[in-house]
Specification:
Keywords: Hydrolase, Metal-binding, Zinc
GO molecular function, one term: hydrolase activity
Cofactor: Zn(2+)
Structural class: alpha/beta
Radius of gyration: 16 Å
InterPro entries: MBL_Glyoxalase_II, Metallo-B-lactamas, RibonucZ/Hydroxyglut_hydro
Protein name: Metallo-beta-lactamase domain-containing protein
Strand order of the largest sheet: 1-2-3-4-5-6
């Protein structure tokens, strides 16, 4: 398994293209600049299978429709945020003077969905609310990587002052779900550089003493 990070939009959101040896691919959080994302997919000669969302804030969904329509892809999102795709108050775009929406998802995940298999990709679906109520992280054990969305960053954690956010809930999610992963697990966040679970356990100032 390999992945490519594409940083897009005014808030520098990380979109990820995960792909295998057969050039099949999963697109995670296409946040903006759909043309740029599609150009990267085409240059790698990939065959996308699906779009996965870690959560539905506006900076993670802005290119969903352009990518999905280009390749006729299913879209996966947690049930608690399925209506955020069309609600600019909940997805936050209204508060930043924008009107960013996406068409409804074709596949809705719940807290009972612990795994997800698409093609050769086998994810563990970790419910990691706090940054938003329906935030999920996708753990790919075979690649020793977790796509954490905006739950955990290098040296930081997600903001919790937006609609439905809760710092207590987020810290609980990080401690009970993400920090239980092997320390060598690469953390691929929604913003900023990659890190590892071990590095965050040792040095993240927001997690000290938790």
């Amino acid at each position: 398994m390999r992945w490519k990070k594409i940083t897009v939009g005014p808030v520098q959101e990380n979109t990820y293209i995960l792909y295998d040896s057969n050039n099949e691919a999963i697109i995670i959080d296409p946040g903006s600049e759909g043309t740029k994302i599609i150009q990267n997919i085409e240059s790698l000669k990939l065959k996308p299978l699906a779009v996965l969302l870690t959560h539905a804030h506006f900076d993670h969904i802005g290119a969903v429709d352009s990518v999905r329509e280009k390749y006729q892809l299913p879209l996966y999102i947690h049930k608690k945020e399925q209506d955020w795709l069309t609600n600019t108050k909940k997805n936050g775009s209204m508060h930043f003077g924008q009107n960013i929406t996406a068409k409804p998802a074709s596949h809705v995940l719940t807290d009972n969905d612990k795994s997800l298999k698409i093609g050769s990709f086998s994810f563990e679906v970790l419910s990691t609310p706090g940054h938003s109520p329906g935030s999920v992280s996708y753990y790919l054990k075979g690649a020793a990587a977790v796509f954490s969305g905006d739950a955990l960053f290098a040296g930081s954690i997600g903001r919790t002052d937006l609609y439905g956010g809760s710092q207590d809930t987020l810290l609980k999610s990080i401690h009970e779900k993400l920090l239980q992963l092997p320390e060598e697990t690469v953390v691929l966040s929604g913003h900023g550089p990659e890190t590892t679970i071990g590095m965050e356990m040792d040095s993240n100032p927001f997690l000290g003493g938790f």
